[in-house]
Structures are given as structure tokens and as C-alpha cells.
């Protein structure tokens, strides 16, 4: 018994600092700067999603300051004093606001079955009107990238 007690105490000290870290994927509202590349055209912007509304505000190129707000039913384009609303079925699927909105809606409907753990966060795979896509999320739940495999659209978050 005297020999077992020191071994038990030693084991307690060895494993006292060990814990299993669990990761729970979470798709939530966000606001991040990003670089968007569509075809041969690229620009920087701020992308946010709050309460199922995606807002993209261009921060580079001649479109700097242009804002697209998409809610699943229509897109509101705002630039300077001008404002124009278009219903959803008239908006091209490659519109980044619509693409981001539909990707997150597809992920939410398949969550958490579409999530897998990566070395530095999570990977989500889904399918939208643009086809297959992959969303990468960091461990701190900020987004890393959104790639549409079947379309020439990619978003790199900062």
C-alpha cells in the first residue's frame, strides 16, 4: 500500500494539467474585411451578416463606398445619393452579397453535419445556386475564406 500511494500521487500530478479541448463549430453573425475575386476582377470590401441580412461595402476601386444589402428577397444597392432595389430572382447568383447569403443559409440548414475540424478551425461544405462551396473558419470563429468551386468567385477574409 505504501508503494502504491506515491505512484497514485505522481499520476495525479502528471495528468493534472491535461484536459481534452473540445471544439464546437458555430455559424454566427459577423463583420470582417475581405478581398473578393470574381473572374479577373478583384476588390476589397467589408462584409457583414446580421439577422439574416448580408451587407457588402466596397472599400477599393471606383466602386469604393458602394453598398449592397441582401436579405434573401431583394438587394438594395446604395452609392452616394443613389439607391436602387432589385428583387432576388433578377439578381445574378454571382453577386457576392447573394452568394454569401445563400452559402450561409445552406450551411445553417445542414449544420452541424457539414462541419469538420481542421488544424486551425473548421471547414464547412455546402451547395447553393452557384454550386459547391467551402467555408473555412478559424478557431476564434472569424472566417478565413469562402470558395465557390463551380463558379469563379472566391472571398478571402482578413
Relevant terms:
158 residues, alpha+beta, globular
Mean pLDDT reading: 87
State the helicity in percent bands: 10-25%
> What is the count of β-strands?
11
Helix count, DSSP H or I runs of 4 or more residues: 2
Rg (CA only) = 22 Å
Distance between the termini: 59 Å
Uncertain stretches of 5 or more adjacent residues: none
Give the helix/strand class. alpha+beta
- The rough form would be described as globular
Instruction: Tell me the quaternary state.
Output: single chain
Could you give the order of the helices and strands? Answer: HEEEEEEHEEEEE
Main sheet?
A: 11 strands, antiparallel
Strand order of the largest sheet: 6-5-4-3-2-1-11-10-9-8-7
Fraction in beta strands: over 45%
Notes on the structure:
With 158 residues, this protein is of the alpha+beta class. Helix content is 18%, strand content 46%. Strand 5 (74-79) and strand 6 form a beta hairpin. The mean pLDDT is 87.
Give the secondary structure arrangement, pairings included.
Layout: H1 4-16, E1 30-38, E2 41-50, E3 53-58, E4 67-70, E5 74-79, E6 82-87, H2 96-110, E7 115-118, E8 121-128, E9 131-138, E10 143-148, E11 153-157
Antiparallel strand pairs: 1-2, 1-11, 2-3, 3-4, 4-5, 5-6, 7-8, 8-9, 9-10, 10-11
Outline of this structure?
With 158 residues, the protein is of the alpha+beta class.
Amino acid at each position: 500500500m505504501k508503494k502504491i500511494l506515491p505512484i497514485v500521487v505522481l499520476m495525479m500530478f502528471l495528468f493534472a494539467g491535461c484536459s481534452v479541448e473540445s471544439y464546437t463549430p458555430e455559424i454566427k453573425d459577423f463583420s470582417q474585411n475581405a478581398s473578393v475575386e470574381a473572374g479577373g476582377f478583384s476588390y476589397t470590401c467589408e462584409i457583414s451578416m446580421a439577422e439574416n441580412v448580408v451587407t457588402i461595402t466596397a472599400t477599393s476601386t471606383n466602386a469604393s463606398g458602394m453598398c449592397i444589402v441582401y436579405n434573401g428577397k431583394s438587394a438594395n444597392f446604395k452609392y452616394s445619393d443613389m439607391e436602387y432595389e432589385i428583387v432576388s430572382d433578377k439578381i445574378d447568383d454571382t453577386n457576392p452579397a447573394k452568394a454569401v447569403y445563400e452559402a450561409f443559409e445552406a450551411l445553417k440548414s445542414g449544420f452541424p453535419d457539414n462541419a469538420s475540424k481542421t488544424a486551425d478551425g473548421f471547414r464547412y461544405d455546402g451547395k447553393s445556386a452557384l454550386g459547391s462551396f467551402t467555408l473555412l473558419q478559424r478557431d476564434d470563429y472569424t472566417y478565413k475564406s469562402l470558395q465557390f468551386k463551380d463558379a469563379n468567385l472566391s472571398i478571402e477574409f482578413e
